[in-house]
Amino acid sequence: MLDIQYVRDNPDLVAEKSKQKGYKVDIKQLLGFDDERRKLLLQVEDLRRQRNELTAGSKGKKPSDEQVKAGRDLKDKLVKVEHQLAAIELEFIELLKQVPNMPLDDVPVGASEDENVVSKKVGEPKKFDFKARNHAHLAEAKDWLDKERAAKVSGSRFAYLKGDLVQLQFAIIQFVLSKLTDPAFLNEVIKENNLKVSNKPFVPVLPPLMLRTDVYDAMDRLEPRDDRYKIEDEDLWLQGSAEHVLGSMHANEILEEVALPVRYLGYATSFRREAGSYGKDMEGIFRMHQFDKLEMESLTVAEDGLQEHLFLIAIQEKLMQLLEIPYQVLTKCTADIGKPNARGIDLEAWLPGQAKYRETHTADYMTDYQARRLKTRVKRQSGQTELVHTNDATALALGRTMIAILENYQTTDGDVSLPDALKPFAYTK
Fold first, then answer.
1. N or C end: fewer C-beta atoms under 10 angstroms in the chain?
2. Distance CA 265, CA 243 (A)
3. Is the pLDDT of residue 429 over 80?
4. Can you tell me the distance from the alpha carbon of 241 to that of 275, in angstroms, rounded to the nearest whole number?
5. CB-side exposure of 58: number of CA atoms within 13 Å?
6. What is the C-alpha to C-alpha distance for residues 196 and 234, in angstroms, rounded to an integer?
7. CATH for 113-425, options being 3.30.479.30, 3.30.930.10, 3.30.360.10, 3.20.20.370
8. Each residue's pLDDT tens digit, 198-227
């Protein structure tokens, strides 16, 4: 959530920037509930003060009938006002939750993803002296991919991965782990991009794949619920991406400043319904109900948040460069960055089989928006307690990275070579 004081101080700006992100919020109504809430809070505090004074005045002696009656009246009034406050507080919180995070000044204003801005292209799209095949044709011909049997067992948008494709996935995992846990590699990324962050390595994490409704909602990643899988008769959801269970790890905690940045590299099998996308990318493994990702999550002090965001993007680019996969960087516009995000970047890999760039990475900077509801704080060395700033970013999405490798490293005979960066981690020749 946003800081309510920021909304009070900037009502018109909040309304305008919310509109730029595609959210219609009633700031006047929100502030009306806020005013009523504050008045009731003052009444509650005053009634409690009166009750305490009355109790103190009769301490050590039997209260008079008048004091007993006054005490009952105060109690009845307090209960009534507390009930009113609780009702108003619920309405206030629901309205405040509807207000999205404010986009940073460098986020392009746009009404749809079509207005995202290509800010960089790296590498030349691969050219072949034969007609490039798509990943599905390559993998099925090698018996690395079986969607027909998966449909028999699980339904559409599931797959059995087999043989060398499985070995390729584990090679990619080991490759990423080796880089993100290496301070020397991270220092290289920092120097190449002139960043002011530490080279503290990422801690590998295998997180739980389910989370409770209140935690998912506090992350502000539960919506749209139609895209999530709910566990029947349980207050649990299957996570839709590893950052959902990584970013919530430190809910209701106060971290010491010396512990920051906290950096996690999470591996998780994720689940999404992909509601409303029927018929899109049905071939192969591009858009699945179940997929594996390596995700970076970072918690920092406020002044380091944006640099950390740029650092995670730089890591994404470096990994793609090491794999020698051509890609472009998109600066996402206001309507596409997401409700809790202040800034968002996508990386898109060149896929020869589709003859276009397709999304393989996202990087999201949330400022303190998530931390406010999660109550994840940091105790500064000054003694002051503040909210942390959160970042998440794809390290490598396993399925889409394999698609990019299959299509960019295919040979004329339908085989696939291996990027040099992965050869030390490969189990096959």
1. C
2. 9
3. no
4. 16
5. 15
6. 44
7. 3.30.930.10
8. 999 999 999 999 999 999 999 999 998 999
Count CB neighbours of 233 within 10 A: 6
Query: Reduced to 3 states, what is the DSSP secondary structure of residue 384?
Result: coil
Q: Residues with Cβ < 8 Å from 263, sequence gap 6 or more?
A: 200, 201, 202, 203, 296, 297, 298
pLDDT tens-place string over residues 229-256? 999 999 999 999 999 999 999 999 999 9
Nearest-angstrom CA–CA distance, 12 and 28: 10
Of the pLDDT bands very low, low, confident and very high (cuts 50, 70, 90), residue 428 is low
The two tokens of residue 177 are: 């782990």
pLDDT over 70, % of the chain: 97
| CATH superfamily of the 4-97 domain | Serine-tRNA synthetase, tRNA binding domain (1.10.287.40)
Tokens of 110: 């746009």
CA-to-CA distance for 156 and 140, rounded, in angstroms?
Answer: 16
The residue extents of the domains of the chain are 4-97, 113-425
Q: How many helices (H) and strands (E) in the chain?
A: 13, 16
d(CA 207, CA 248): 11
